[in-house]
């Protein structure tokens, strides 16, 4: 199991992982496509009393109450405007459905393990703790986000910490 | 139960031996019929399954022309056989006289 | 021909034992039910018979299946019961506890066999000895050997028992040996009924080679002279003979007073399967078995009148969700259609009305699947109270009110532990021992009342005792000791709340019942976790009332939608007293807080926009609308921009994908598809009070 050959096989020298890429400000991010449920436009939300500003509120997604987080506000990038082109990524994270507002969704890319480099301490909007690595696609850097770790963190205030 | 089951191959073997060498057994008793003696000495447990097997064994012997006699039957076993209702099936083969052999 | 070596491997005995375990558990439950129903009264003959039967069936089954240890307690119990039944030993109330204890021990032994659970042998010995002492202490002249213990009941008129002669043919299942059935034990049981003769025959004579000795080909016939009824005989075979494997017929005239000769004849008679001609006149049931064959009678499984279907809770929840969706969709369609001309689209409107009705009915029906009566929880307590009271030397009467109040199954599961704790507290701390009660001019026996009711949109459960009440001074002292900030100026209500602090216990002695200091805080946490609240009312010397109020999480809520800025909220209709547009003169300020003067009451105003930090159109109370709410007796006025509409709404959890939101009891989806938060007026009031 622990031999180099096996682990590289398993981690996908031959089976690349797919990432949904999106922009936040000037940066390009990627999250595991398997966590993405759907992408939709921005519907009016119902505000939640005394929630932090970046938690826009909740929407009705086919009968399920789903919280909407605006990453632009949270990470102070881009312009938090809402119009017909505003994009919400609906994700399934740790058994919960959460919507995430970003500047735009770009693409779905496949990255092999060797294309992913460890993330150095850097000045990205996101704390390095939530970054699994850096990928390169067409000479552009892609920041890969551990969305589970991010969404369950205390600073996102989405989940009760007791859970 | 397991006791009985494990004894079965042994019994079958004995039955085969008994019926095959019926002629040789002539000298064993004074009767004209072939006579087989079964001893129940040393047996301390006997259940319905055992009774059933014994009855079938006895019948099989008779079918092969061997007349069985059951010897040295402990009182407890005799009572158990009666209690379980097998007095009529097994009782006639009991040999009660002491020193028969 | 098959070789001897190819004997079938041992089959799993557990499969057969399972039947016994289940039946045994059933018998035990029935026994307990009857015993508890007695509540210290002397059982009538029918009940005694039923208890006896249960004990007897367990003993018989245990013996037959080889669980000898279980026959020990059941045997003594059975003997004792038999003597009580025959009026050889007078019944007394203490016996009920003893019987209950015996039932527990048997249950423990059963669990030992079934689940490999540990068996406390000391308990077995102890209870056997106690039961035996009762037998021994009774009159010695009735001493009888085990073999003669009669299973028959005395005839109701007290005359000499009537003897019956039966012929039984028992053709057991070929698997009976493999099942590990102790046939000898079975026969011994029969022998205890009376004079028995047994004859075995083989239904076939297979060749020895290839015969599987564990396959039973034996057919037994019995001749039995006994006062017992056919039912009693059938009971012995309960675990062993399937339908058709046991044939019983009564063969000759009953003898009023058996003499040795008759009995002798009976034993000697040869028994053939054909038997003697039965006299039909004597067939039929005796007085003893009059009701016991009836479905639902004690000792019998209830009939199939109310058949049930076992369905996974997740399936029910899925159904509830889907119906909720349907209701919302229906609302959306109705709302869109309302813009259409009622004359031109008359048919459409009529159909939509029909659709609405049907959808509502469907929703109600589906919701009701999850509702269960609270008696499921309440029924645990009589036993517990009885035992604890005995242990503590107290006299307690337990009353339950509103047993049929229905609440969601999920709530039932979560409320059981907190309620158990509260009842224990009542017994252990609140209720006094009889001497103290009398000294205080109360009745010897204390009362604990469990009362459930549905008050509007909430389920309210009260645990009331008439004990000593909470001791204000002691609670304050204890709290101070624990470093909790207190002052003598605190209101009673605030003082009582202190007992919910973690690790708080005022009990002088730590008992094994409660008072370990992990109590009320856990109760509060559990109740709060299901959106409930706990309130305490206590009067020194009079007693204490703990009130738990729970939301009807799954019920459809009738609510009033209100607007604050761009947001809509739902206020549960049942908590609303009235709505009013206050005149400026009615608005006052008391201690810096805004209040409204309504019919002599000064009611605090809760400005929703402030509480929820919302931009509102109306910030002055005299320009908006005040919704007067009632929170368990306390009033408040919620300031909103406008009243919108009345709705029936489906409560949805926000916590499924988000966290708990203070001041809300969930959310719902309105006819336009948008989410509206449902206000929890109780927690609104708390938020307002805490600033």
Account of the protein in words:
The complex is a heterotrimer of chains A (163), B (101) and C (691). By secondary structure, chain A is mainly beta. Chain A has a single domain (17-152), classed as OB fold (Dihydrolipoamide Acetyltransferase, E2P) (Beta Barrel). Helices cover 10% and strands 44% of the residues of chain A. Chain A contains three helices and eleven strands. Chain A has a six-stranded mixed β-sheet, with no helix packed on it. Chain A has a five-stranded mixed β-sheet with strand order 3-6-7-5-4. In chain A, a hairpin with a 2-residue loop joins strand 6 (87-93) and strand 7. Residues 1-12 of chain A have low confidence and may be disordered. With 101 residues, chain B is α+β, with helices and mostly antiparallel strands. Chain B has a single domain, classed as STAS domain (Transcription Regulator spoIIAA), CATH 3.30.750. Chain B contains four helices and two strands, in the order H-E-H-E-H-H. In chain B, strand 1 (34-39), helix 2 (48-63) and strand 2 (66-71) form a beta-alpha-beta unit. The longest helix of chain B has 19 residues, at 2-20. Chain B starts with a helix and ends in an 11-residue tail after the last helix. The model of chain B is unreliable at 21-32 and 97-101 (pLDDT under 50). Chain C has 691 residues and is an alpha+beta fold. Chain C has five domains: 14-138, Up-down Bundle (Four Helix Bundle (Hemerythrin (Met), subunit A)), CATH 1.20.120.160; 149-255, Histidine kinase CheA-like, P2 response regulator-binding domain (Alpha-Beta Plaits); 314-370; 374-551, Heat Shock Protein 90 (2-Layer Sandwich); 556-690, CheA-289, Domain 4 (OB fold (Dihydrolipoamide Acetyltransferase, E2P)). Chain C is built from 19 helices and 22 strands. Chain B binds chain C through residues 1, 4-5, 8-9, 11-12, 15-16, 47-53, 55-57, 59-60, 80, 83-89, and chain C through 4-5, 7, 177-178, 180, 183-184, 187, 198-202, 205-209, 211, 213-214, 216-218, 220-222.
Number of strands of chain C: 22
Q: What is the makeup of the main sheet of chain B?
A: 2 strands, parallel
Shape of chain B: globular
Structural class of chain C: alpha+beta
Residue fraction in strands of chain B: 5-15%
- Give the strand order of the largest sheet of chain B, numbering strands 1, 2, ... along the chain: 1-2
- Roughly what fraction of the amino acids of chain C lie in strands? 15-25%
In CATH, the homologous superfamily of chain B goes by the name STAS domain
Which percent bin holds the helix content of chain C? Answer: 25-40%
Number of helices of chain C: 19
Sheet with the most strands: spatial strand order of chain C: 14-18-19-17-16-15
At the fold tier of CATH, the topology name of chain B is Transcription Regulator spoIIAA
**Main interface: chain pair and counts:** B-C, 29 and 28 residues
At the first level of CATH, the class of the largest domain in chain C is: Alpha Beta
Averaged pLDDT of chain B, please?
69
